[in-house]
Design goal:
Layout (H helix, E strand, L loop, with lengths): L5 H29 L4 H38 L7 H27 L7
Helix pairs in contact: 2-3
């Protein structure tokens, strides 16, 4: 892969991420202002956002582990060239990671757990 293309791609991802953070912060601020001083609603919103951040970390942790197994399989099979089989292994590993997250999250939703209060 040509290394000259990595800088613009990284720059674009950085700009998109920065815009996303600013928009989320502004939305969170507007929701808190719309709560009209209701601390109960504000706390519920903050707890939900914290839960979403933790679930996002769980999702990407599972997906990256699945991708690591996919890359390990590619290395074990000694594939050197990009081929449809190589891409299928990586796409399959990503899909399996997302499915594992779905089932882990579904199981967490079904089991009672202690609140963070």
């Amino acid at each position: 892969m040509n290394m000259d293309i990595l800088l613009p791609i990284t720059l674009i991802f950085g700009i998109v991420y920065a815009i996303r953070v600013v928009v989320e912060a502004r939305t969170r601020r507007q929701l808190l202002l719309a709560a009209d001083g209701s601390t109960e609603l504000a706390n519920a919103l903050l707890r939900d956002q914290e839960r979403q951040r933790r679930l996002s970390s769980l999702r990407w942790g599972i997906v990256l582990i699945a991708l690591a197994f996919g890359f390990g399989l590619i290395h074990w099979l000694d594939w050197k060239e990009v081929s449809p089989g190589l891409v299928a292994v990586l796409a399959g590993a990503t899909g399996i990671g997302h499915l594992v997250f779905y089932f882990v999250n579904d199981r967490r939703a079904l089991t009672p757990h202690i609140s963070d209060n």
